[in-house]
């Protein structure tokens, strides 16, 4: 749907109003330093019942699959056109049930409330890092040394999902990749509780997938595989959870992991989405960046910001759009104007052999 100028202005005013009062710097610091703790608490509370499976993934991002598999699925789909596509299939119904809800019921009630007290076990960043799937406490590099290779080294087509949470994208992807020889899926999250949920799921299969605890903001932390081996990186509602000042470095580092020709697929909250306008005063951290009542944070992007960020990381636009939809909850008689940004950026195939200054300009992550 399109917004009228009036609607746009109204949304702008609402956002300006709810960001008049900023969260105190001391508290801002706490939300940054303890970000993984808040997400851990989130998964402790909700387990894997919060987000719906992202069954729309292959419709919006067919690039997740190798070309050959895509063609095969297209042919299969054509030959069974009469079969109704339901929410458990790879190609869901057009109204994207999982995408529209985003667990808003819970967060809606957490926008204006005071932060919930954190109960139970508290993880700090250091602890979260050490809670990997390797209880002896060996780091990924040591593990790799022992294996003389790395997880997924035998695959030809590799996908990484960053900020995988409880696996709502992982399992729809695995369902297809498990029938696609030569493919491998990595997924990571800095909330160790989320990674545990993924690994203990009945559909988790270590022959096709490697889930690991990883904070993408920690530059010093190595990935459990070398650079330039990924065909696809998936960023679904994860960059918005990261402090805007840190996003560029995160994207630069991720771009290094892509093979030349590899794709970065992005979907996240857009500027003036209903969930931004619903925040009450006192939840704004900085322009368009808010903290929810449970301590998790969310940023609302414009498509130009997204373009700049990926472009600065040396990636080229394939798609970059604003997806506006009217979401209607008939039962509760509420209408919500949803705004998402959806983008696809490719790593260029060839690095320029021109002067080093020029190369740095075009590929600052290099
Ligand atoms: C809104 S959830 C989305 C989860 C999942 N991508 C999905 O679509 O269902 C954001 C996820 O990003 C993870 N996250 C936030 N900051 C992160 C960081 N610095 N490193 C790794 N994961 C992070 C959180 O733990 C959380 O699981």
TrEMBL record:
- Entry keyword Nucleotide-binding: no
Which E.C. number(s) belong to this protein? 2.1.1.-
Q: Which Pfam families match?
A: Methyltransf_12 (PF08242)
Q: Which domain of life is it from?
A: Eukaryota
- Enumerate the UniProt keywords alphabetically: Methyltransferase, S-adenosyl-L-methionine, Transferase, tRNA processing
Q: What does this protein do?
A: S-adenosyl-L-methionine-dependent methyltransferase.
Similarity field: Belongs to the methyltransferase superfamily. METL family.
The name under which this protein is listed is tRNA N(3)-cytidine methyltransferase
Species name: Apteryx mantelli
């Amino acid at each position: 749907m399109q917004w009228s100028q009036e609607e746009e202005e109204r949304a702008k005013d609402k956002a300006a109003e709810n960001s008049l009062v900023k969260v105190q710097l001391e508290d801002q610091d706490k939300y940054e330093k303890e970000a993984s703790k808040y997400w851990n608490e989130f998964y402790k509370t909700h387990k894997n019942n919060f987000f719906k499976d992202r069954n729309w993934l292959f419709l919006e991002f067919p690039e997740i699959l190798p070309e050959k598999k895509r063609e095969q699925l297209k042919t299969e789909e054509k030959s069974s056109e009469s079969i109704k596509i339901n929410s458990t299939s790879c190609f869901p119904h057009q109204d994207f049930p999982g995408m529209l809800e985003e667990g808003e019921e819970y967060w809606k009630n957490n926008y204006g409330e005071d932060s919930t007290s954190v109960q139970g076990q508290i993880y700090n960043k250091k602890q979260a890092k050490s809670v990997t799937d390797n209880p002896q406490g060996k780091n990924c590099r040591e593990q790799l040394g022992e294996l003389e290779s790395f997880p997924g080294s035998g695959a030809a087509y590799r996908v990484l999902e960053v900020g995988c949470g409880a696996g709502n994208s992982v399992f729809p992807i695995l369902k297809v990749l498990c029938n696609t020889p030569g493919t491998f899926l990595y997924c990571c999250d800095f909330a160790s509780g989320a990674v545990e949920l993924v690994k203990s799921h009945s559909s988790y299969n270590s022959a096709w997938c490697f889930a690991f605890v990883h904070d993408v903001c920690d530059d010093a932390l190595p990935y459990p595989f070398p650079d330039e081996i990924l065909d696809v990186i998936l960023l679904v509602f994860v960059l918005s959870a990261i402090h805007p000042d840190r996003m560029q470095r995160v994207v630069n580092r991720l771009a290094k992991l892509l093979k030349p020709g590899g794709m970065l697929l992005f979907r996240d909250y857009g500027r003036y989405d209903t969930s931004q306008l619903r925040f009450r005063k006192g939840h704004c951290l900085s322009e368009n960046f808010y903290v929810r009542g449970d301590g998790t944070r969310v940023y609302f992007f414009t498509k130009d910001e997204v373009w700049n960020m990926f472009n600065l990381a040396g990636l080229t636009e394939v798609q970059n759009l604003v997806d506006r939809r009217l979401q209607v909850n008939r039962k509760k008689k509420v209408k919500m104007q949803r705004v998402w940004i959806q983008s696809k950026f490719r790593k260029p195939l060839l690095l320029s052999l021109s002067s080093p200054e020029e190369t740095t300009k075009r590929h600052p992550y290099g």
